[in-house]
Amino acid sequence: xxxxLIVVSILFVAAMLGYAVVRLDPSRVEPWRDPETPGLPHSxxxxxxxxxxxxxxxxxxxxxxxxxxxxxxxxALVAAYWMGVLFVLLQGVAWWVxxxxxxxxxxxxxxxxxxVLTALHAIHIIGGLIGLERTVAQARLGAYTPxxxxxxxxxxMYWHTLAAIWLVLYATLWVGS
Length: 177
Prior knowledge:
By secondary structure, the protein is an all-alpha fold.
């Protein structure tokens, strides 16, 4: 899992460095974005809070499993899962807001990088939701105990990494817009 998380992190670091290079390129003839283009949708700020809360709930689920509190563990993991779903839905809202404002992926580099970077992250979140769904199912069956909770540990490692990546990605998008 550690090697996988390093690879995922490198992917996002490379994507954000690419964003910075394109954003700061002094030889670019076209403007980065039209001055009338709206800034980042407000739903992204809300989704940032949601992904952080989801990460906290996943950690609480792990703590409950370590204490042998299987029902509380399952509840915390279910909450983390649904917050993850809400995060993805809020990303969709952000896209919808921009499309409604007629900011399309083909308009300029600003729009293209926004859509590509947020889609890349959303795809990884959806992958994490698949793993989290399995972890929730196992928790509901009482499979996690104080001595056996590796599934939650691995899921939490991935989820916390994605939350941290989102914080950096959101900051990058905010500064770049």
